């Protein structure tokens, strides 16, 4: 049984081995056919035809590469027509080709890709750049050039680099143009830029000078002056010619052309001067190919092939590498045992009949294997490393940024998906970590349309006569900032004068009109005004508008023209009068701790000095008086008792230092109280308002209500809206007990104006928000940037201060401070001193009692160990007290002192 199984296994194994060997040996045919579809007489087609022929010749000349197999190329002319391209693709499929090069048109590529999918034939395009062709819908579509997705990313980064926020796009209205512009819109959105206006031009057979003129006239009426031109060469030159004719190639305009222009410039080194004059200053892109010896050798060979009549553009390099890509894939295909065989398509068999000969087209059986080898290819060609990423796109996409000048173009930098804009070739940056910071992003200087090197502003006010509608709040209170002239659209005030002065500094005219906002009965909501700017009801908002977080999320503000922030204003009372003013420097807790410390230090010194110092001995009454007198007299450094022990002196030194600090602080604070008028308020700032339950006032329409309720968490039931300075004063005077408020929270400019005429109130605490006033514009508005620059200029030349003094300088309350803050000295300012003093006292007492206990245990008169424990503890306590009260014998020290004095006398 086992022998039979073994024989069967050997038979199967030998069969498999024989089959695999036969595939490897017999699968290499003499000729492999590949097709090519493109427009022969186009700029790209003329270059592609020569490049393909030369690439096939070079592949076949290398006998060791395909090992006896030759490539045979069959070319078909699509004439840039989707229908013709489809017909030519079907003709190629009748000849058993394994791959198709082309087409160059994205429109034709969309149609042929369906044929390639059905017949499983790889379609390698070297010029169709429509980003949507990379979708999963077309698995057999292989792009051997760069997608417009990256070209549009490069354009968006150029736009962002120069600070432009809006662009206009002119595109050819087909799959190529529409999908390219859609990709550009996505890339601009990532940079917070946008397409403000886009217009399509009919394909070539419908485009004429009249229709292009209509398009450009509409473009000239738009605000943006940055135009992206995404068309083909024939339409592109017509657009430039008409633009030059109507004055759209002069100062202020920016033209960015996609790589169609660089292809024409590279292929035609000597364009007519009239044609070059129409596009001076234009920026265009070219697919970047790194310099190499192979590339230089091929360019030299190209000059000999064409005799200098036709230049080599980047698409010629890509189509040359595409042929080699197919050759590498076919070689790997054969090495893996692939066989070139075809089978009938059941779908086409059902449609037989007529003269189409659909039965001649068949499915390439091993097409998926060849496609797999194409996608896994990795070699170095004329365009650099040919390798595909996970998205089936060539790795390391990069572009040259060119500036059309004179009779040609000048490279002003590079863009790569790895490092962004740079003046350094991308291949030199691949070895370093990517750095796309704004400081690293740079280009060389550009000569713009109008032969100027100054960067164009990129926008102007539209020429269609529209004025800016600027919303201005109708204020009822604090009209010094914004005041509406009744029954007119005229406004005046501090904010209006600042806006007018800033607009007058702009290098261009700004047509605008003020639109009143509010009912004139109460201050309107500024948040609602800002929301109307976002909704497009107003083109801007001007007034005393605070720049706060929730507003900056929906609009752009100019540079602040006035500082602002919320403050608390409350009533106050004077503290510099009264018979008990001398108690004000210290808080109650400070007085208690200080008094307690005097008594404790006196007791500690008495304990340390009692045994050896006669001044601390005597009857109990005398000793108590001595302790109190000694401790209190240290306050004035007038103590007569001398300390004899080392520990006592140590405690006294530290305590005298503490007394010195307390004395100095008390004297300074009392001097301030008696010489400077002090103010006191029950409200100390925002924290005390949060802890209380009293009503708080705020100005109608101010963001203070939102801040207090949403940010601070104060219940809305405690908030009271006040409409004027008079209501502020009345509510503060009444107080919370009489229906008023305990404090008013408002922005500092309003409060300063209020306090200029109300001397009974003061700002308490610190300003608890930092913001400013600015003018609101829609997001990414270029006018906001220019006005910010004008406001800075007003600040630098002093005009802003003069406007401020004109409207806001008036009578002020002199001789009183503007902010209330209690000057009482708190315990927290001195707790470190008290802690040090307490530690010194504790250490001194610890050392002292250690000596006492040591003396007890070393005494010869020790009680019997057999005595009761209670009586023993009683005896120890009596012994401790006795030793503490015992007079230390100092006879020896006195005798020694006498001997020293006698010796000194004898010497004298």
TrEMBL record:
The keyword Glycoprotein applies. Pfam families: ANF_receptor, Lig_chan, Lig_chan-Glu_bd. Keywords: Disulfide bond, Glycoprotein, Ion channel, Ion transport, Ligand-gated ion channel, Membrane, Receptor, Signal, Transmembrane, Transmembrane helix, Transport. GO terms for molecular function: G protein-coupled receptor activity; ligand-gated monoatomic ion channel activity. Its main location: membrane. GO terms for biological process: cellular response to oxygen-containing compound; response to wounding. It comes from the Eukaryota. This is Glutamate receptor. It comes from Erythroxylum novogranatense.
């Amino acid at each position: 049984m086992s022998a039979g199984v073994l024989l069967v296994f050997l038979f199967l194994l030998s069969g498999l081995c024989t089959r695999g060997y036969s595939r490897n040996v017999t699968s290499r045919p003499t000729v492999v056919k590949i097709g090519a579809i493109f427009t022969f007489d186009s700029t790209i087609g003329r270059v592609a035809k020569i490049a393909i022929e030369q690439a096939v010749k070079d592949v076949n000349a290398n006998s060791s590469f395909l090992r006896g197999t030759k490539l045979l190329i069959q070319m078909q002319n699509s004439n840039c027509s989707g229908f013709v391209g489809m017909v030519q693709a079907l003709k190629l499929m009748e000849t058993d080709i394994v791959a198709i090069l082309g087409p160059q048109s994205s429109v034709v590529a969309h149609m042929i890709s369906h044929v390639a999918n059905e017949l499983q034939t790889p379609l390698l395009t070297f010029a169709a750049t429509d980003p949507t062709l990379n979708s999963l819908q077309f698995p057999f579509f292989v792009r051997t050039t760069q997608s417009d997705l990256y070209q549009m990313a490069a354009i968006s980064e150029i736009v962002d680099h120069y600070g432009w926020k809006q662009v206009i796009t002119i595109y050819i209205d087909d799959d190529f143009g529409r999908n390219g512009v859609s990709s550009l819109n996505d890339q601009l959105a990532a940079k917070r830029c946008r397409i403000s206006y886009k217009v399509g031009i009919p394909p070539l057979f419908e485009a004429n000078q009249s229709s292009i003129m209509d398009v450009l006239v509409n473009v000239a009426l738009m605000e943006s002056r940055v135009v992206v031109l995404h068309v083909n060469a024939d339409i592109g030159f017509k657009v430039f010619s008409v633009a030059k004719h109507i004055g759209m190639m002069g100062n202020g305009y920016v033209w960015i052309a996609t790589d169609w222009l660089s292809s024409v410039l590279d292929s035609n080194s000597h364009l007519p001067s009239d044609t070059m004059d129409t596009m001076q200053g234009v920026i265009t892109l070219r697919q970047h190919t790194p310099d190499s010896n192979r590339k230089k050798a091929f360019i030299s060979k190209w000059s000999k092939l064409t005799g200098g009549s036709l230049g080599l553009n980047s698409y010629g390099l890509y189509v040359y590498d595409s042929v080699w890509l197919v050759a590498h894939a076919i070689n790997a295909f054969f090495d893996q045992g692939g066989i070139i065989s075809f089978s009938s398509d059941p779908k086409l068999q059902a449609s037989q009949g007529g003269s189409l000969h659909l039965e001649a087209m068949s499915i390439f059986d091993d097409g998926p294997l060849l496609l797999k080898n194409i996608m896994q290819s990795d070699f170095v060609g004329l365009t650099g490393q040919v390798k595909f990423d996970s998205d089936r796109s060539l790795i390391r996409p990069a572009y040259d940024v060119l500036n059309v000048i004179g009779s040609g173009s000048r490279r002003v930098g590079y863009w790569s998906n790895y490092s962004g804009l740079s003046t350094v070739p991308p291949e030199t940056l691949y070895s370093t970590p990517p750095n796309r910071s704004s400081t690293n992003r740079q280009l060389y200087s550009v000569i713009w349309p109008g032969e100027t090197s100054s960067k164009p502003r990129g926008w102007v006010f539209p020429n269609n006569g529209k004025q800016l509608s600027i919303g201005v709040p109708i204020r009822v209170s604090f009209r010094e900032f914004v005041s509406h002239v009744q029954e007119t659209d005229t406004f005046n005030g501090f904010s209006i004068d600042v806006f007018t002065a800033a607009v007058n500094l702009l290098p261009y005219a700004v047509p605008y009109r003020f639109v009143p906002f509010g009912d004139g009965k109460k201050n309107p909501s500024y948040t609602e005004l800002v929301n109307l700017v976002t909704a497009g009801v107003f083109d801007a908002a001007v007034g005393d508008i605070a720049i706060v977080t929730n507003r900056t999320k929906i609009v752009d503000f100019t540079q602040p023209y006035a500082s602002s922030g919320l403050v608390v204003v409350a009533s106050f009372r004077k503290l510099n009068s009264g018979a008990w003013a001398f108690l004000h420097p210290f808080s109650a807790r400070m007085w208690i701790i200080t008094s307690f410390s005097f008594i404790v230090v006196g007791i500690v010194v008495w304990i340390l000095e009692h045994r050896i110092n006669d001044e601390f001995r005597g009857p109990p009454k005398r000793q108590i008086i001595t302790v109190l007198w000694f401790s209190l007299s240290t306050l004035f450094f007038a103590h007569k008792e001398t300390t004899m022990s080392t520990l006592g002196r140590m405690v006294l030194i530290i305590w005298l230092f503490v007394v010195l600090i307390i004395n100095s602080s008390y004297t300074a604070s009392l001097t301030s109280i008696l010489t400077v008028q002090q103010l006191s308020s029950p409200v100390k700032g925002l924290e005390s308002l949060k802890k209380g339950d009293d009503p708080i006032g705020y100005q109608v329409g101010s963001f203070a209500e939102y801040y207090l309720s949403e940010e601070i968490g104060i219940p809305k039931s405690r908030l009271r809206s006040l409409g004027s300075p008079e209501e502020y004063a009345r509510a503060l005077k009444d107080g919370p007990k009489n229906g008023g408020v305990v404090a008013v929270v408002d922005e500092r400019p309003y409060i300063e104006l209020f306090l200029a005429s109300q001397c009974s109130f003061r700002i308490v605490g610190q300003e608890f928000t930092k913001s400013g006033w600015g003018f609101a514009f829609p997001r990414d508005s270029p006018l906001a940037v220019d006005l910010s620059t004008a406001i800075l200029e007003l600040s630098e030349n002093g005009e802003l201060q003069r406007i401020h003094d004109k409207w806001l300088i008036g009578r002020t309350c002199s001789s009183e401070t503007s902010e209330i803050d209690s000057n009482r000295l708190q315990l927290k300012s001195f707790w470190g001193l008290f802690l040090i003093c307490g530690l010194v006292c504790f250490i001194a007492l610890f050392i002292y009692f250690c000596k006492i206990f040591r003396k007890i245990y070393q005494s010869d008169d020790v009680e019997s160990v057999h005595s009761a424990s209670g009586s023993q503890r009683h005896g120890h306590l009596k012994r401790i007290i006795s030793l503490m009260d015992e007079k230390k014998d100092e006879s020896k020290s006195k005798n020694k002192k006498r001997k020293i004095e006698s010796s000194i006398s004898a010497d004298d």
